Amino acid sequence: MHKIGLFYASMTGATQEIAECIQASHFEPGCVDLFAFEDAEPEDLAAYDALIIGTSTWGDGEYPDSLEAFLPQLDAINFEGKRIALFGLGDQLGYPLEFVDALGLLYQELKERGAILIGDWPSDGYEYEASKADLGDGRFCGLVLDQDNQPELTPQRLAAWIDAIRGVLLQP
Q1: Would you state the pLDDT for residue 1?
Q2: Kind and range of the H or E element at 143?
Q3: pTM over 0.85, yes/no
């Protein structure tokens, strides 16, 4: 069986909950290995050809502490040819000027390292003023979830996104 590494950075537990939901409810048992960035090593990411990475945005558009601490270790990983889908959590009403910025920052980090980034997501249906995750073409660079203001939309958004990325992630 082809395995997917799912890595997440969470400050309040919401991103962890989504990561656990992806693992438990959207893939066959044993298909997705789950890692918190605070417990991960570069070798863990390097071991997978397909990754799902989730992050929240903290403060004024910053990475969560565990992802910020892990960033220097990205240089030890060869991302060329790795298929990576990203998801991010943010609060569009509380932080409309930096909505899911950490997702956009991570996208740029991985793009510069040669990763194959998949799973962009429509930006309609969200109310925000600025976002580093906004690709400027009506799409975010990954799935965007707002558990503070739109939790009722999460199940359908998550299911549609997983359906869109599953085939690419499971390619040998």
Answers
A1: 57
A2: strand 143-145
A3: yes
